[in-house]
Amino acid sequence: MTNWLPELEPGKGPLYLQLADRIETDIAEGVLAPGTKLPPQRNLAFDIGVTIGTVGRAYNLIRERGLVSGEVGRGTYVTDHKETSLVLPVAHTEPFGGTRSATIPSGKIRMDSTAAIEVGQSAAMERLLAELTKEYPSEIASYSRTLPASWQQAGSKWLSAAGWVPEPSSVVPTLGAHSAILAVIAAITVPGDKIAFEDLTYCSAARSVNLMGRRSIIMQTQGSLTPDDFERHCAQQHPKLVFLMPSLHNPTAATMPEEHRRAIVEIARRYNVWIIEDEIYGSLMTHDHVKIADLAPERTFHIGGLSKSVAAGVRGGWVACPPHLAARVLTAHKMVSGGMPFILAELAAKIVNSGDADAIRAKVREEIVAREAIARSAFAGMEFTSQPLAPFLWMKLPDPWLSGTFKNAALNEGVLIDDEDEFKPGRTEKVFHRVRLGITVPTTRDEVRQGFAILRRLMETDNASYDSYS
To answer: Where is the secretion signal located (predicted)?
Structure first.
């Protein structure tokens, strides 16, 4: 038995999660060697000043992660597992995380969102909802327990790109793209499995992974994921699943080259890694890039939706699955979301199948192009990354601005933006000195110009007045 005693920090997240993470880190670093017997739960609880229930929850969690084994009356022992010798990133102790406020202050210019621009969607919605309620009065009044072919056909149509058309029977309608991500994770992973994310990404997915008892690992990159980065992490960390945004990466606005897509597919096959291909922003692009799902249909879950290009409020999403897994993902989606509301699923399908979605998307694209041009003019001479059809900019801050400080200064001046920490899936020493500026939520181009003018003035101002000395 070891004399090992962990140090926990009150206020740094749930104590049981801190304890589990501490045990995992000490196993990875060799402090707790394979075969080591952990202290009895009652003894450890007394020694570190927590309840026995806290220790019990921590021990159960590390058992789920495959780090220990044990029997009643015999004790808990560190397992001899090849992965325990690796130094793993420290997991979040606060699964909800994020740097956005839970509530949105009123009277601010919102550049912290990339929901589809308002281009008159309400007219189409009014017409389609009237048709829907007239055609399906009983379905609206009850739970949806069917999967109409029209829902899957709409998903196949919306997800199709670059010559790839998913088989409708492989498509699962979901309550938006985020819900699709959770359904896939629930369907093909178990607590303790590792899911790989780039060091900048859509972090709500990574936080959800941690909340579900899976472990997010960070793939350190040099700006965008390369095949070498991916293979290194597969060899060292053995992820079960990787989350990618290849066609329009959030927040960097990068596009993965085709040769990298093909190489990553081959690496995923060698290491038996599942792939989530999140194309929520890709639906805005007009240039064709080969889809990972087309290259590796047996292991790729291709996800898309309406929120960035048609209407976020509809919550319309779909996931094209490897054929033998569609039923499993459908069931998992029902479990994690409570089920697909008929009125939203039918509305999303009608928007796509009627052609209204394409017409709305064309208007949204046109407005994004105009606003991105305004950004290029407003920030002339400054460093940022964008694409003409991207609904956001990845802005480099001039010295001496830090990302979090600039976000707070912008809020004080009436503009909501996202700092870089909003897109970091875990703790990292890497600093980008960037912020993401969304361009789609302001109601007019003049409001966009006003927000940009405020931000440019701030960037050209010494930040001393915004430093905190408290």
So the answer is: none
